[in-house]
Amino acid sequence: MSPKHEQIAKLIQLAKIDGDLDHKEILLIYGIAHKHGVQKFQMDEIIRKSDSNTYPRSIDRDENIRFFYQSLILVTVDYKISEEEITFLEKIGKGLSLDPTRVKKAIAHVIENKETDLDETEIVALIQ
């Protein structure tokens, strides 16, 4: 799988952690996939491979930060963030070679503001 496909697979896995695959989570994942040029027929393979224990490969710093931001958005769609989701986000951050301290700050910020619209610029500043 390409790095982009791996990222989509991780979003699917992240969405499944709390047991409920919310309709809004599905729409967000498909929207992100479409934005990255993933075709509908490719989604079947990505969904099949979404349960693997690998984490997305680092692409480049800006893309890694963008993907981590998308992951943060995904966990807030249902207005609740579980401990399992937090742990998974930390693992994604590590897999993307992001600073663990900054990742934790971004997660804490998202938890604090989970019921508001998250400002991408603000989150990116916390991660960089």
Helix content: 55-70%
pLDDT averaged residue by residue: 87
Number of helices: 7
Cα shape: globular
Largest sheet: none
Low-confidence stretches: none
Count of discrete structural domains: 1
* Rg measurement, Å: 13 Å
Strand segment count: 0
Share of residues in strands:
under 5%
Output the helix-strand order: HHHHHHH
Give the end-to-end Cα distance, rounded to a whole number of Å: 27 Å
Short description:
Helices cover 67% and strands 0% of the residues. The protein is mainly α and 128 residues long.
Structure description:
With 128 residues, the protein is an all-alpha fold. The chain has one domain (3-127). Helix content is 67%, strand content 0%. It contains seven helices and no strands. Helix 1 (3-16) runs antiparallel to helix 2 (23-35) and helix 4 runs antiparallel to helix 5 (83-95). The model has no long low-confidence stretch (mean pLDDT 87).
